[in-house]
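Obj: model holo form, ligand = iron/sulfur cluster.
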Amino acid sequence: MALPAAVASALGALGSVARAVDEFRPRSGQATMAHAVAVAMQTGGTLVVEAGTGVGKTYAYLVPALLSGGRVLLSTATKTLQDQLYWRDIPRLTAALGVPARTAMLKGRSSYLCMQRLGIARHDVRAIHPTAQAQLARIEQWSLSTRTGDLAELPEMDDYSPVIALVTSTRDNCIGSSCPQVQTCHVNQARRDAMAADIVVINHHLFFADLQIRESGVAELLPSAQSVVFDEAHQLNEIGVQFYCRKLSLAQLDRYALDLGKHGHLMVQSCPDWASWVVEVRQRVGRLQELCTGAEGSPYMSWSDTHPADTDEHAWSLALAQLHTALQQCEVLLRSMEELFGALKGLREHTALLMAELDVFSHPLPSGWIRWIETGRYATLVQSPRILANAIPGGIAPVHSERPNAKSWIFTSATLGHDATLTEFLESGGLQHAQVLQVASPFDYAKQAAIFVPPHFPGPSDVQHRRAVANLVVQIATTLGGRTLVLTTTLRAMREIAELLRHHILDSAEVEVLVQGESSKRELTERLRKASPDGHVPGIVLVASVSFWEGVDVPGDALQVVVIDKLPFPPPDSPLVAARSRQIEEDGRKPFQHLYIPHAAVALKQGAGRLIRHEKDRGILVVCDVRLIKMGYGRRLLAALPPMKKIETQEAFMEALEQLTRPSTTGH
Ligand code: SF4
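Output (holo structure tokens):
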């Protein structure tokens, strides 16, 4: 049977998926998307699908992928979705479809326990904080039983725990083939499994790493595949831009100079002047630092041409050239002595690496790239593509290419843009040739959801704004007994609002305030999901910032109100935003219309998407920013949101809240 027909049959009312998966219900949007994916996988090409919340897009690409018989790479932006696909959705569907696919999941090396570094950390245990010691003991115990070494198996482990850096490896500190643990190394095992599998779950960062390694022509990290599917594709541009961004930190150069000094006892044998060479490197770094002092209080220095703003062109190129010469002199000598003293090999390699980075900033800026300097005690030189397409000739999914990656490319997400053309998304990935499909959410937003913008609210830059947000959240949370997610645009606002809620306003046994960073995202979301609507355990107000605007899935009554503090415009002082604005101006368009509003619309759509996760959910989106109803552009932003009922007054809002406390007539 042809792939589209096989997929339609599997996802139909009497199909194999319906027979095997209890909660599965056929959905027309899902069938439409699955058909398009199956056609693309069978015939080749590039397909971009924006599939609204509730369409069931995961099955719409997994079923064709599993039935295609070819090798498929599935790439996600987050580890959470990687885990969900690998541990839950793929096993369910392989069983339902009866396909014997070999599957593997590959994450970045910082996700895997490194047994070699665990051994070292064990000996340094007294030097670390008691909480970290307890975490280390837990990791040690788990290391005896884990098969994968994937730290995600420890849900209590916060992604930002300092212990993670102690027990995982980096490219620099992995000792590779000379490692005594190499035979049982979890990173190596995961890579071997990925190379041998039919369905490989990766993340966007790894995809770019593989692309870069392939272009160097020396190796590959991932197997070649017939199809590549990117879920959470809306994050591809920013992840790719970060991946290709080059940085040279003067702090790193200063530390390197100290390292040169530490090896003086070896170097002095053939270079009696070694100490003065080291001083010279430090002086050259210091000279560069002097030139990198931007305007008082500004975190960035712009760099639009051959040299940074406010520096003399000649002085700048001279400082770069002199530093390069000083490094080169050291590199030549280190090279001549590394055979004699093996300990110098790493230092010589580090020197070569720094020279290569310095070269990047000495050459003319490639078209479509920008440079700037992050100022501070030590400056950092930065070079970044303006958008991802500027870093990958031919785009992510080339039509005609030597790149043997794939013949079909699928990009999907619940939110890829604010309009029907998805122009920004296509441009950013170089995907203008793609076929675009938009599948609407099956939810009845007009019945299930409402939006409220408090009309008499302090403006977003008013000093009373955060207090007013906190007061409103108290009203909501005490009426509902928690069930609220507060999404802020900055970490500072998050902390202030959480503090106000906790210490000055909300101090009740019925409602507990959780804040991003106090535990892992997975654990915080789980606690919100499990909060009991019947009052047996305290209800939850979760206060979080940017990373919770997406990827939080809490269906049911545990989450009934999402509060957004301000319209999520991009920060105008960010060098990337400024560069994108300049480009739009050069194209004869207006940055506010073509960058700031689209960006805010997409982010608002993502934040609002946390509210209704099931056809029986009910809820209210509260946006504490009067610009949404008072400014002309507010209409455009509202139009990008699902068609929710509008609540105009505080009284109507309180009434709507009360209604949420009554049992739903549709009920879960
Ligand atoms: S090979 Fe590298 S990552 Fe693997 S155990 Fe050894 S040091 Fe760790």
